[in-house]
Amino acid sequence: MNHIYKEPEFHLQMLAYNGYTAQGLRLPQLPDFVSRLFDNYYREISRAVRQSGELRSFVLPLQGFFDANQDEVNYKILYRCHPKDLHLRAICMTAALGEFRKMVFFGNSNEPQNAKILYQQLSNMRTEKVLEMLSQRKVNTVKLNRTL
What we know:
The N and C termini lie far apart (73 Å). It is built from three helices and four strands. The protein has helices spanning 8-17, 33-52, 115-147, and strands spanning 56-66, 71-81, 88-97, 100-105. By secondary structure, it is α+β, with helices and mostly antiparallel strands. It has one domain. It has a four-stranded antiparallel β-sheet with strand order 1-2-3-4.
């Protein structure tokens, strides 16, 4: 058995440690939402794996709210379930803030990147684009004024 496949409880601990909890994602009205969602997906995939005897995958979709709930980040974490003992491996994850996206491959790690850090990286990408657009607008305004 490959060491990169871990028990489902390990993955729940890694999610919690990295901010993928109701509190960390700003979902206070749903205190155990992430663990219940994860459990539901795991139950479904483990049933399918037992029946087929083959590796199967599932995507855990999560949402987080940041900056006084003005920014919504959509996370998707891809897991693969091994037929031998129904342990999981985290493959990759994506995070999206509007049009800005980031994909992270786990390699031999099963630990997702911290939710707040991913949000900050996406927010920085958005800020850079806004600054670039403002700079371009300023350059175009200067060119226009010179031609007048």
